[in-house]
Design brief:
The longest helix is centred in the N-terminal third of the chain and has 29 residues. With 196 residues, the protein is an alpha+beta fold. The protein binds iron/sulfur cluster (2 copies). One iron/sulfur cluster binds next to α2.
């Protein structure tokens, strides 16, 4: 008798479980689909602005904003960035370090954004151009400043004329006599042994 009760009990539990599963399936059946049919929908693909596909130097009217300081290279945890810099002559005869080549290895980038967030110039960003498949790893190494000019070099500002030194006020020579230590030091009375 107990075997029959156990049998019908398990059948009932199975039916309840099946109904719950069918409820989830039925709900998804009428929910709006978010699956992208790539590559058929390449022309109207919806990619999030926050998607990190590949590091790029921002293009500002044909110039990038990198000053070759090397902070991004130092902060990159796995050596993905390699900078080459060069010295150029300024109009005033001085020299200035500028970026020569900004090499980035997409194959080793972990998309951590440390380079982007620490750049003092705001020169870097991640594009969401995700179609980066190539046949060899060498092709994943990119020169990010290719086709971009270095930022225009600003003419050095003339130094302001030195202001005449202001007359110093007479020094207050009043001196305070050092305070005397009036505290008398009382020698400690020794505890003489009691004479018998
Ligand atoms: S990208 Fe930014 S942090 Fe990196 S070298 Fe250029 S200015 Fe410096
Ligand atoms: S995102 Fe991270 S791993 Fe990639 S280059 Fe920048 S610092 Fe390096």
């Amino acid at each position: 008798m107990s075997n029959i009760i156990e049998y019908f009990s398990s059948v009932g539990k199975g039916i309840v479980s099946l109904v719950k599963g069918m409820q989830v399936t039925g709900k998804e059946l009428v929910t709006k689909k978010i699956t992208e049919c790539y590559p058929e929908n390449r022309d109207n693909l919806n990619i999030s602005d926050r998607f990190r596909a590949v590091l790029t130097l921002k293009d500002v009217d044909g110039h990038h904003k990198c000053i070759g300081c090397g902070i991004c290279q130092m902060n990159c945890p796995n050596g993905t960035i390699t900078l080459q810099t060069k010295m150029v002559d300024l109009p005033d005869g001085k020299k200035k370090k500028v970026l020569d080549k900004y090499m980035y290895d997409l194959g080793s980038c972990t998309f951590c954004m440390l380079c982007v967030t620490t750049c003092p110039q705001g020169a870097l960003e991640f594009s969401n151009d995700f179609e980066q498949s190539v046949f060899t790893r060498e092709k994943l190494v990119k020169e990010l400043n290719a086709g971009l000019e270095n930022p225009p070099i600003q003419a050095p500002k003339p130094r302001p004329a030195a202001a005449p030194a202001a007359a110093k006020p007479a020094a207050n020579v009043e001196k305070t006599a050092p305070a005397k230590d009036d505290t008398a030091t009382t020698p400690l009375a020794g505890n003489k042994p009691e004479e018998k």
